């Protein structure tokens, strides 16, 4: 096994390894079909490493370094140069073999060479990851909760199928509403109501009925 900088020829294997690693972790909902590009409006530099064997990615680690103005106003630890732990994943068949630690040792050498003053790591519950970060010398500075669900005081809604218009209709207290939220995703009934959102991703759903004689 060797640790090298990421190159585009490994992208498909990179995506597979991240997806498989996250599938059985608290980050099961963090899936993508391609490797993310670094946002140069936010970050000035990147450390992007992969552990490779027989042209297959066994592990990956991505750390981005914030632009100076963002670093200096960073709420968790203001400094002239702050880095953000973007991705860490090891293929399930190769976990508990020290690959993550080997990636981090090399990445940390690069962080020091780039004079990074602080590394921010965000994670969720999971003994393996939290143990690693503590082992690597990171300290918890804040805790919060991500909740997918419905507030208890939120009023219910009704929906019906308008067959003549081939769409759904949502209503609350007898009045039609343009959308509702289901497990953190807003469901919109008509295309024109997409203008009510700043959209990161939108999926077009269709419902078919097969009628048998």
Draw up the topology in text.
Blueprint: E1 2-5, H1 11-23, E2 43-53, E3 56-66, H2 68-72, E4 82-90, H3 99-113, E5 118-120, H4 127-135, E6 158-162, E7 167-172, E8 175-177, E9 179-182, E10 185-188
Parallel strand pairs: 4-5
Antiparallel strand pairs: 1-2, 2-3, 3-4, 6-7, 7-8, 9-10
Domain N-acetyltransferase: 4-164
Protein name: Ribosomal protein S18 acetylase RimI-like enzyme
Organism: Streptococcus moroccensis
What does this protein look like?
Residues 4-164 form the N-acetyltransferase domain. Pfam families: Acetyltransf_1. InterPro entries: Acyl_CoA_acyltransferase (IPR016181), GNAT_dom (IPR000182). The protein has helices at 11-23, 68-72, 99-113, 127-135, and strands at 2-5, 43-53, 56-66, 82-90, 118-120, 158-162, 167-172, 175-177, 179-182, 185-188. It contains four helices and ten strands, in the order βαββαβαβαβββββ. It has a five-stranded mixed β-sheet with strand order 1-2-3-4-5. The protein folds into two domains: 2-135, Gcn5-related N-acetyltransferase (GNAT) (Aminopeptidase), CATH 3.40.630.30; 148-213, no CATH class. The protein starts with a strand and ends in a 25-residue tail after the last strand.
């Amino acid at each position: 096994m060797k640790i090298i900088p990421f190159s585009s020829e490994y992208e498909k294997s990179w995506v597979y390894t991240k997806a498989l690693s996250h599938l059985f972790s608290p980050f099961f909902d963090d899936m993508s079909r391609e490797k993310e590009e670094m946002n140069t409006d936010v970050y000035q530099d990147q450390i992007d490493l992969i552990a490779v064997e027989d042209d297959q990615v066994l592990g990956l680690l991505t750390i981005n370094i914030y632009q100076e103005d963002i670093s200096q106003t960073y709420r968790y630890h203001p400094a002239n140069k702050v880095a953000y732990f973007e991705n860490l994943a090891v293929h399930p068949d190769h976990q508990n073999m020290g690959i993550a630690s080997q990636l981090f040792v090399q990445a940390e050498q690069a962080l020091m060479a780039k004079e990074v003053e602080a590394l921010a790591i965000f994670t969720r519950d999971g003994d393996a990851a939290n143990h690693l970060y503590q082992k690597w010398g990171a300290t918890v500075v804040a805790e919060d909760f991500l909740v997918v669900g419905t507030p208890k005081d939120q009023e219910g809604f009704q929906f019906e199928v308008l067959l003549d218009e081939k769409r759904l209709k949502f209503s609350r207290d007898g009045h039609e509403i343009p959308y509702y939220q289901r497990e953190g995703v807003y469901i919109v009934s008509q295309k024109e109501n997409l203008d009510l959102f700043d959209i990161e991703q939108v999926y077009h759903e269709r419902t078919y009925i097969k009628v048998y004689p």
